[in-house]
Write a structure and sequence with these properties.
CATH superfamily of the largest domain: Type I PLP-dependent aspartate aminotransferase-like (Major domain)
Mean pLDDT: 95
Oligomer: single chain
Number of domains: 2
Structural class: alpha/beta
Bound molecules: pyridoxal-5'-phosphate
Strand content: 5-15%
Shape: globular
Order of helices and strands: HHEHEHEHEHEEHHEEEHHHEEHHEH
CATH topology of the largest domain: Aspartate Aminotransferase, domain 2
Largest sheet: 7 strands, mixed
Number of helices: 14
Helix content: 25-40%
Radius of gyration: 21 Å
Length: about 400
């Protein structure tokens, strides 16, 4: 039956069907106790995430964007500061930097991992640079050993954008840093979760993320007691004690209801991510012979495949997307315009050249993936892609 229906880029229904009874129970419990703001489920979820990620503190907030904004503010970043990040990301990454009054400085990316290129980070450091904000794009950890080494040498804060990487595990990867990172540092960071490497991590529970809620939600992770306290203060109008507002903050708490529902989903995340990884492997094996498309780079050990994104030979990307559409297969371009070229920055980055970012923007295409993509549907996607690329 599924063989003739449309295959969306992400189908959340099977996940919902699997967990429906537990979710219904969690929902009813919150309705019954009625503590909709900072109820007991929030604390429980924060503790579970802190344990899972391997950090001392996890602070629930209203969205991934707020997690970034609040983490940046808690790190003391503001007016006059520069934050080095990638332009090849969702706008919220760079928006958060501008929202705290700092300036986004864009480094180019590595063409096989899509993540920020550490050597270009070094090129962009000035005396105003205060922080580096790497994104673990599509669920693949950025080159963290090298990034932390640069940060320490220049005394910079590192905030990880983990919106797409819940559950991703960093493994030192020499294809990313050209073998330049310090071996002892590699060992320190090898096999640990994204969000536990920098000074803070920012997660999103937007419904389509790997750990998706049923509305907006986010989380900050950190090992710093001071940063954690500031984040807790900032998310609740700048106060830890009611009606004793100490700094300008936000109304940005994680809803009890979202936390309750996410508590149900969290124990399944490793299996869901493993299913994504298995699907990614099947794609990559099947695409090995194509001259038109390039599958994502290996090694992919800790990658959680929030997206499975291929590169398509020059000029053929939109044609492939159209071909898939005609065959009832969804695909998406993440992201069609790099951040530095968005209308919001008109005129600001005219002189900036990011050759790899600009080129990949015209080449990338994300294919259907998820924890419950059936092998049958995946076969249909593979067949269509291979038909296109051999015709
Ligand atoms: C989704 C996303 C965000 C923002 O998360 P929200 O919860 O939607 O605010 C930030 N950065 C990246 C890379 C994202 O994909």
């Amino acid at each position: 039956m599924s063989s003739d229906s449309f295959i969306p880029i992400l189908n959340l229904t099977p996940e919902l069907d699997l967990l429906r009874d537990e979710l219904d129970r969690a929902y009813r419990e919150v309705m019954d106790h009625g503590r909709f703001i900072m109820g007991p489920e929030v604390k429980q979820f924060e503790e579970s995430v802190a344990k899972y990620v391997g950090v001392k503190h996890a602070i629930g907030v209203n969205s991934g964007t707020d997690a970034l904004v609040i983490a940046l503010r808690a790190a003391g970043i503001g007016e006059g500061d520069e934050v080095i990040t990638t332009s090849f990301t969702f706008f919220a990454t760079t928006e958060s930097i501008d929202m705290v009054g700092a300036t986004s400085v864009f480094a180019d990316i590595n063409e096989s991992t899509f993540n920020i290129d550490p050597s270009d980070i070094e090129e962009k450091i000035t005396e105003r640079t205060k922080a580096i904000l790497p994104v673990h794009l599509y669920g693949r950890p950025a080159a963290m050993a090298r990034i932390m080494e640069i940060a320490e040498r220049h005394n910079l804060i590192v905030i990880e954008d983990c919106a797409q990487s819940f559950g991703a595990v960093y493994s030192a990867d020499c294809t990313e840093c050209g073998g330049n990172c310090d071996a002892s540092r590699k060992k320190i960071f090898d096999g640990i979760q994204t969000g536990s490497i920098g000074h803070a991590g920012a997660f999103s529970f937007f419904p389509s993320k790997n750990l998706g809620g049923f509305g907006d939600g986010g989380m900050i992770t950190t090992n710093s007691d001071e940063m954690a306290e500031l984040c807790r203060k900032l998310r609740a109008h700048g106060s830890l004690k009611k009606y004793r507002n100490e700094v300008m903050g936000y109304n940005s708490r994680l809803d009890t209801l979202q936390a309750a529902l996410l508590n149900v989903k969290l124990p399944h995340i490793d299996r869901f991510n493993e299913n994504r990884r298995a699907a990614a492997r099947r794609y990559t094996d099947a695409f090995a012979g194509s001259t038109v498309i390039t599958p994502p780079a290996l090694p992919d050990d800790g990658h959680v495949y929030h997206q499975y994104t291929i590169r398509v030979a020059e000029g053929k990307r939109d044609e492939l997307a159209g071909y898939l559409q005609r065959n009832d297969i969804g695909s998406m371009i993440y992201y069609p315009i790099p951040c530095h070229k968005l209308p919001v920055y008109e005129g600001k980055y005219d002189d900036l050249t990011l050759p790899v970012t600009n080129r990949l923007t015209d080449e990338v295409l994300s294919l259907p993936i998820g924890p419950f993509l059936s092998e049958e549907d995946q076969e249909r996607v593979i067949r269509a892609v291979m038909e296109f690329s051999t015709s």
